Amino acid sequence: MENNTASLKLFALNSNPELSQKIATELGADLCSASVKHFSDGEIQINIDESVRGADVFVVQSISDPVNENFMELMIMIDALRRASAETINVVIPYYGYARADRKARAREPITAKMVANFIQTAGADRVVSMDLHAGQLQGFFNIPVDHLLAIFTQVDYFKKIGLDKDVVVIAPDHSSAKKARNMAQLLKAPIAIIDKRDENSLETIHDQTVIGNVAGKNCIILDDMIDTGVRMTDAAKALKMANAKDIYACATHAVFSGKAVESLRDSDIKQVIVTDTIAIPEEKQFAQLKVLSVAPVFAQAISLIYHNQSVDSLFEQHEI
């Protein structure tokens, strides 16, 4: 990517340095120097080692495990940049933690996703760039521009590359995921099916699920925005196997992989687990069926477009979903 990015400053914090470096490489830029120290009592100190006065700054930080630590790093960095007279502070959050707390499901419950948005704005951010938010309406929690990027085109390109665009069904693991599944199915020119879970509170999930749609003898792609504990994916895979599906693929943008997710996925009926690198996956959480797609090119293109005051929508104009 050849662009004039003379006043663009790109910083990486500790959540995902590998993705940050890939983005820098795609941009043909260097990561700027900053030191992040953690004191023994948990306090964080950040020093920016070069001038950012008048610069358009982009900070890459996922709000992933350890969630609160990474979030505080981001807040402190924004404050440091604001006090150092950066012209604009653009926060690149590949994975937006706390996004699932986006509404009051019960009495006296917080809307933490909105609180996080308030903190980011109050600290001094001018723009947020994120990918596959758990709920699209999170963009409305901000009073600053939010660019919502999509991993679906990267995922579809991979499936086409391995020949999984024929004789395939895209699976929504529940009714709320149907729109996302329909979008991928449209790009793959494939039908969709839905896992109908009868009792959301049941522990015996496999016995309470029905596959709506024809999957017998078909390859199946279970699509979700994230894989956390892995229960939804593995239960959906069991239901699909009972419905005589052929090969089963699990596809998600964010690899949260908490608890016993890795063991569950590794020992399941799933042939391959496809995720992106929005969250850094440590070596101990990698396994044979895992395939990680990089979304660095998407973020790099978005950053370049923002820096040059061009429309980010141009990234997706060639696709119709």
From TrEMBL:
Its EC number is 2.7.6.1. It is an enzyme of class 2 (transferase). It comes from the Bacteria. ATP binds at D41, G42, E43. Pfam families: Pribosyl_synth (PF14572), Pribosyltran_N (PF13793). Signal peptide: none annotated. SUPFAM superfamilies: PRTase-like (SSF53271). Keywords: ATP-binding, Cytoplasm, Kinase, Magnesium, Metal-binding, Nucleotide biosynthesis, Nucleotide-binding, Transferase. Coiled coil: none annotated. The keyword Secreted does not apply. D-ribose 5-phosphate binds at D224. Its cofactor is Mg(2+). Homohexamer. This is Ribose-phosphate pyrophosphokinase. It comes from Ligilactobacillus saerimneri 30a.
